[in-house]
Amino acid sequence: MAEWHSxxxxxxxxxxxxxxxxxxxxLAVICAPFPALAGGQTVGGLEVFxxxxxxxxxxxxxxxxxxxxxxxxxxxxxxxxxxWAEILRDxxxxxAERYANHAVGGAYTGYGNRVSDMAPxxxxxxxxxxxGMLAQxxxxxxxxxxxxxxxxxxxxxxxxxxxxxxSVDPQAVGRAIANIESTIRLLAKAGARQFLVANINEDLxxxxxxxxxxxxxxxxxxxxxxxxxxxxxxxxxxxxxxxVTLFDTASVTGAIASDPARFGFTQIIEPCYAGPITEHxxxxxxxxxxxxxxxxxxxHAAQELIADKAAEKxxxxxR
Length: 319
Prior knowledge:
Blueprint: H1 2-5, E1 45-50, H2 58-62, H3 84-91, E2 99-101, H4 114-118, H5 123-128, H6 133-142, E3 151-156, H7 159-163, H8 170-189, E4 195-198, H9 207-212, H10 215-240, E5 244-247, H11 253-258, H12 300-315
Parallel strand pairs: 1-2, 1-3, 3-4, 4-5
Helix pairs in contact: 3-12, 6-8, 8-10
């Protein structure tokens, strides 16, 4: 285990840990039965691809239950409770056998993983090195993945692509969008007929980004990413002739940050847990009211808001 502990600097104060930033959405009141997609097709299954926004324990299992340290991270999630994808599964009443989560904490949109770049040569780096989102989609195909018509495919990654970019970088944005397009096309090849594709945060400043002073160029890269992603989704919708729907997490984060009390948050600056991501540190006494679980990830309360908004979005998906 000595080698594992050599990478605790991944989450030391002042370091830029896995961003995997899960975005806040307005709390939606779901009044009608759901989910119904274009043409009245109900959602009977979920396949999830991405990073720590959606990871329901994959990085933890791959690393031998080492990353992230659990506790304080809840059962290997990058939060203090279930993540939005599994909450959404329960909201939609998806049976266990129709839910598959391929997301891995630290994943880039392409093939690699940010942890492998931050801790090269370690056992953890080797375990996670081929776990990017595009690699997840290829593994799904290689394993014989074949989508049922009522399966919803969730695609959400991008934050980690810019975490190590210390400048405005249109080329990095271009690569990320190209990887997302390749992921969508591969999944469509497997029979996917319903997509929910999330963008990334522009407004909410996570504690580690604030500490690193990276807000200015982060905002430019993410705004560029989201503009290109919106254009890509429109093009994919027309080319594939299936619902490819934007899950616009970025559009409402400013409202959340400006009026946190409306959504039940009392602490929106400091995280509940400020210790290393690979050590069993001690979080705050009570996470209720905290927007941030750690420096790069949001609390379980935020995860529930995301799941509610996603359920609302799914109910209105159109071609």
